[in-house]
Amino acid sequence: MDLSRRSFLKLAGATAAAATLTGVGLRKASASPSEPLRIKYTKELHTVCTFCGVGCGIICNVRDGVIVNAEGDPDHPINEGTLCSKGSAHYNVSYIYDEKGNPKPNPNRLTHVLYRAPGASSYETVDWDWALEEIAKRIKDTRDRTLVETETVNGQQVTVNRTNSICWLGSAFCTDEENYLFHKMARSMGVINVDHCARL
Ligand code: SF4
Questions:
Q1: What range does the domain containing 127 cover?
Q2: Do residue 107 and residue 117 come from a single domain?
Q3: Tens of pLDDT along 106-163?
């Protein structure tokens, strides 16, 4: 079919309108008047999306300690109620809805430590205490082995106290304050390669 630019735009507009009307009709048909509002009897908590440096505001609705809904905060000056696809999926980090629309823990959420030993081809589940101890031990060992205390700059010995053998990444799942503490800790050990996906 030959379409001019004008008729293409007309067709696209008509299709979008039809899709919207169909959607409204479907929603009306499926919504039960007796169905309780998902956010009924919930406590509203305001938070900030942790996925990137934009910092969109999110409202979480919590009932009996369980988040039952999360959506963009319309009063937030940055996103004014909108969220991108990552922010919109925030709720699903912990919970998903069952067939009846009730929240249940997301079975795909990782809640234990997976460890792949050097040379191994698969992961094994290990406990948190072992993992934390092992991480601390290896960081200290690497740092002590590779710390450069002084360096010659312009013919003079200066104190540098740094290691180039460790790279430290902050986490978008942490608050600014937590990332600030990570940064302080990394610097105190002489780690100079510090980064974060949102460059915080
Ligand atoms: S909602 Fe999207 S744009 Fe906003 S902070 Fe989260 S990831 Fe960034």
A1: 113-195
A2: no
A3: 999 899 999 999 999 999 999 999 999 999 999 999 999 999 999 999 999 999 999 9
What pLDDT is stored for residue 33 in this prediction?
62
Domain assignment present for residue 21? The answer is no
Distance CA 136, CA 134 (A): 5
Is residue 93, in this structure, part of any structural domain at all? yes
Ligand 1 centre from 65 Cα, in Å? 24
pTM for this prediction:
0.60
Count of positions (residues) in the chain:
200
Pairing state between β 191-195 and 156-169: parallel
What per-residue confidence (pLDDT) applies to 140?
Answer: 96
Determine, yes or no, domain membership for 28: no
What spacing in Å lies between the alpha carbon of 86 and ligand 1's midpoint? 6
Residue 87 CB less than 6 A away from ligand 1 = yes
